[in-house]
Amino acid sequence: MYLSINLIILLCFLPFSYSNNSLEEVDDNEFINLCATEKYVVVLFTKRQCPECENIENELLSVREDLVDSLNAWVVKIYNSNLVQIYSPAKEPALVFMRHGVPLLYSGDINDELILHTFRENKEPNVRELDDSNFEHLTQAASGATTGDWFVLFYSKTCVTSHRLTARWEAVAAALKTRMNIARVNRLDTGAATARRFGVYTTPTFIFFRQGKMYRYQLQSHDVKALIHFATDGYKRIAKSENVPVPKSPFDDLTQLIADYIAENNWVVALGGFCVMIGFALAMRTRKSNSNKSQLKKSKKKDKPKTEENIDKPEKSNTKKSK
User: Fold this and answer.
1) CATH of segment(s) 128-243
2) Prediction pTM value
3) Which residue, 84, 146, 182, 269, is the most exposed by fewest CB within 10 angstroms?
4) What is the spatial distance between Cα 125 and Cα 138, in angstroms, rounded to a whole number?
5) Are 78 and 29 in contact (CB under 8 A)?
6) CA–CA dist 108, 120 (Å, integer)
7) What's domain 24-121's superfamily in CATH?
């Protein structure tokens, strides 16, 4: 009887013991639904037989209750998810903090207190959205950058690489938010004129603005640490300093837009040249035809015979009237 009671108690507490030693597991669809309905979601992308994954999970378990209490966040894990490549190029393990659906890839040391501090201090997205209407006003890039340094990502909604940079770019913003401004510009839409101003024609493109100068990040690596290093010190050695161009006038921007369009669409030049040649040929043919008609008329006038006078003029009478 005593053994049976102990067994019942053990079975009752077993689920709680298991849940305290492991994160709740969800699949991709459940995770997507959580992001759509919940304000904060902390997710660990993990895989089986991965000591590093287990280490991160243990650290996360240590602060799970704090995350729930302070942020009312869901803390879950996903095994072998197809979504991990959207947030991390290295795949599993990847720790991501979703805020209103905007991801932040954790890139710090694996430490429970540091994880908790990072998520608490970055409850809202840090990357600022700039466009043609506010870029110069907010950055003052051409006038001396009195608003501080700016590290800007030019992206497009149709660029897969740009889309997969969102979580990493937020990680850069979280790491540098006390030192500089991190922003992004939609190259093909709301920031098209700004992109033309700085000669940005591909995405993703990174430009660092500092004290009236601009530095282009041209390394192939889009790793969080590489981007942070460039903005804090690396730009001095690996990037060429350029003067920040002043904003273009509407006419100059239109001219640049036409020039860029022609440069990107060589067939327009070929078609235009072909049309000019056809027009010139038609004009020459019309001119030659008119010339032939004129010569033909002149020739007909020369060959036309003169008409003889068939009626004799009356002779003058010399006779005087008799009195």
Assistant:
1) 3.40.30.10
2) 0.74
3) 146
4) 18
5) no
6) 14
7) Glutaredoxin (3.40.30.10)
